[in-house]
Amino acid sequence: xxxxxxxxxxxxxxxxxxxxxxxxxxxxxxxxxxxxxxxxxxxxxxxxxxxxxxxxxxxxxxxxxxxxxxxxxxxxxxxxxxxxxxxxxxxxxxxxxxxxxxxxxxxxxxxxxxxxxxxxxxxxxxxxxxxxxxxxxxxx
Length: 140
Fold this sequence. Notes:
Elements: E1 2-7, H1 11-23, E2 27-33, H2 36-46, E3 50-53, H3 62-72, E4 77-82, H4 87-95, E5 100-103, H5 108-119, E6 124-126, H6 136-139
Parallel strand pairs: 1-2, 1-3, 3-4, 4-5, 5-6
Helix pairs in contact: 2-3
């Protein structure tokens, strides 16, 4: 069972992700956050296996937060689930050590399969539903 913190400034998104993750039986949601500062604080306190987070929320920039978390919790996996597919955002996330990058319009099945792959150690960057998955090696 993997422990997860979900961070998004929209309660409905957090609730949907919570239900999706707990329905598959491999994940338990240990905490939720509604802004970037809270995402970092919750993650440091709860030491989850995964932070599933929005990119642009109030408070601390989550890319800066990812750098802090990767330094203090090197085993944590971080997946950004966002509405923004700007190449600069993807590159900055990759450089910060983020393990996955998905669009919010991605299907629930793709979200779960990406989480499973990331938890096995594969980096997955999929900026658009119809684009092919990019791995950390593809981005180098």
